[in-house]
Amino acid sequence: MSDNPSPVDPGVEPFAAGPLPMGIGVMRSQPQRYRDWVAAGGTPPVYGPSPVPPSNTVVPAVTGTAAVGQVLTCTMGTWYGTPDFYAYQWKRDGVNIGTNANTYTTVAGDSGHAVGCVVTATNMWGSGVAPLSNTRAIP
Asked: Could you tell me where in the chain the CATH 2.60.40.2700 domains are found?
């Protein structure tokens, strides 16, 4: 039997399960590797998307000209947890307005009020909601 790691998984040393023909080893399965990490008191590595719901790390921001008839744009912010998609909720003085879009065209009813947005990010493990963005006072 060769002393080299398996070419299939170079990070795992093969081990023999009884007499085997020359050059054949039995590899630990992924679940067994996980149990080995835990038994050794370690934290197994996580590959790919984080298995957690998204959590906001940088609050979304509203940009654009604060005037009736102008378009405001809401950024998605920055998220931990690998979001798959985002939903946008525009708010006027904290009350829901607008639709699920990252842009909002201000209307006469926005005059004299502050407009901002809230972003919800979702992945297969759940959803997270960012705090209200900065607001734009519409004259």
From this structure: 55-138
Instruction: Provide the CB-side half-sphere exposure for 33 (13 A, CA).
Output: 14
Starting at the edge strand found earlier in the chain, the sheet holding 62-63 runs 62-63, 71-74, 103-105
Secondary element (H or E) of residue 78? strand 78-80
- Residue 13 is predicted with a pLDDT of 44
Please list the alpha-helical segments (H only) found in 3-98.
30-39
pLDDT under 50 in the chain at which residues?
A: 1-2, 4-28
* Overall fold of domain 55-138: Immunoglobulin-like (2.60.40)
